[in-house]
Fold each of these.
Amino acid sequence: MKRYSTIMSVLLTLALPVAGYCAEAPKGAEKADASAGAQKETTPKAGETTKDTTSKGGHSNMMGGNSKAAGGAEVNPTGKVVETMDGGGYTYANLEKDGKKTWVAFPTLETRVGETLSFKNCMEMPGFESKALKRKFDSILFCGSPEVKASAAKAKMAEGKKSPGSTGAASAAVGKIKVEKASGANAYTVAEIFEKRSALNGKQVAVKGQVVKVSTGIMNKNWIHLQDGSGSEAKKTNNLVVTTNDEPKVGSVVTVSGTLIKDKDFGSGYKYNAIIEKGSVKQ
């Protein structure tokens, strides 16, 4: 009798998991039906954009094909760069196409305003806040390295990747730039800085220009690119780099004061024919 009781206990123990599974199965089916019903209810009407990016397996479809990410942003974006900056190991670019702007982030790469870039298989991150840039984006797409549409832009990017310094060609500004020369005995245009860099080496100078690019948090400094309309893009004498703790906005006109250094080599390709160090930026 005791042996019979033991056998029944074992059988009952084995039966419990099966019974439990059978009891949960209808609930799973009900959830699936409910999910399907919810998807049916949220099917967008004509002209609307769906916000549902969840696949049957519960994973995001944002990486797939020509689908759209949450909020309607293209996961394969293409557009003209209208604003760009670096920070935290990423290059941030604002792409414009057909009047619509989309922010993308990708591994640091010399990028110019005016280039046309395209990306594949990007992932959207709504409400992303960059600590390096001290800026919050309502929506941004994180992508791999970009594809460049124009062959000329490809050449420029290759040149920029080869050397991010003076010979690497910094961002080109949108439209023609014409900024008046700063006032004072130590004031110079961008072109004059390059022309007189040997005589001015180690001296305090002041330059007024438009900010065409800002790269933050590199070597514990912010790097700004100034242009005033003087100099030659072909000769690399139209763009002056300044290291500073300040962070002006791209497009703003500022006056920078600091120490001019010629032939500065930071290593890792950061070499400059002329650069202003420990710059103080005033609007």
Amino acid sequence: MNKIRPLDYVLAALMTAAGVFLMVENITAGDDPSLIHPVSTTSWLIIPAFALVTIPILWRRANVAVVSWVTAAAAAGHVLAFDWLTRCGVVLPLAFALGYAVARFARTRRDHVLGLAGIVALVVVILFRDSSADLAGALPIALPGVALFYGAGLLVKNRLSKRATTVPQPVERATV
């Protein structure tokens, strides 16, 4: 179960590609009056640094609680290094995917609690300095979204565990 599967690569690649696109948009946006706060930097370093936020989901099957905290730490580092940028467009879907992953792959209750706490930290850190969304406006959307994906992950996990325990027994046929 700890093995990285092809869909893990697809998920990490999609999140990273979306992150690259969003960071390029931050660089090329200029002074956009529709932003809550102007973008603080247009350095091209935001792109590889943001990849550190999106790539850890690749190891979600190994230890999702650690992955959620590594992602939150990388996001905090990105916020500290580059200040105001639009990140919510990628980080919120990433938080939803992590919520699903915690439900599916966390082994103990402690891992569930730590994983979810890491996701909450990730969302709060990102929204604290997001140019397009404020904490008060986006948090009531983000946290229920994480809970919804967490619930979907629990549903899938329960269905898969039921299917594994109810493997049909071979039928013995009477011979006459």
Amino acid sequence: MTNIPLENAGGKKNREGIALVAISIVILVLVLAGYMANRLIVARILSDQDVASALKTYNSSSIPGVGKIDAAQTVNAALALLGLIALLGSIILFPAGIVLIVHSRRPPKPAPIYDERSGKGKASVIPPELGGWNWGAAFMNIWWGMSCRVWISFLALVPFINYFWWVVLGFKGDEWAWRKKKWVSVAEFKKAQKKWKIWAIVSLALTAASIIVSAVMLIAGLSKLGGGNSSQNDDFNNTLQMIDSVRH
């Protein structure tokens, strides 16, 4: 086992949190200031009664001053859009900054002690307890791969390869996950893979349910279509019989 020193990133987190909060506030202030300044410019242009009356009557860009108003209104709309984007950004940045500041006040936690056999690539030693079929790797391939840093799982997105790659991932999942990522213990590794197994089974169940529902709806639609055609044929035959009876 490798003992990693205590992680003491409180000062860094505090600075990052303050920076995020300050950036969110500065962005909002700048956008609001630009919006208000543009509003004042528009109001000053509209104070010219001739331009204002002409704008109401014709709204023509050929009248002196109207072009300036149009430009100012365009800037105003752009600033409003930027303000919306800034507001959305602030909604994310401001709480994130607060969380970092709060976390920086907490005492540092000891770093985990990893199993030296894991996370060393080809030099990793695979414990005998691992192996067998990995449900998460097979059926949650790219999501499982991102979590376990098995980037080769993205081959499941390649056409034709994806037909068999899920099987390869299922059999090699334990080995590749152990080699690519550091794990505290075999027990922790198995616990993580068990969670992925649950997600895989849920995903398979939902997929199967959707296929069954789609098949039932398709069969019902085809039967209804066939019944409709039969009814139409009967109506057509009845009409022909009525015509024949009238003739005779």
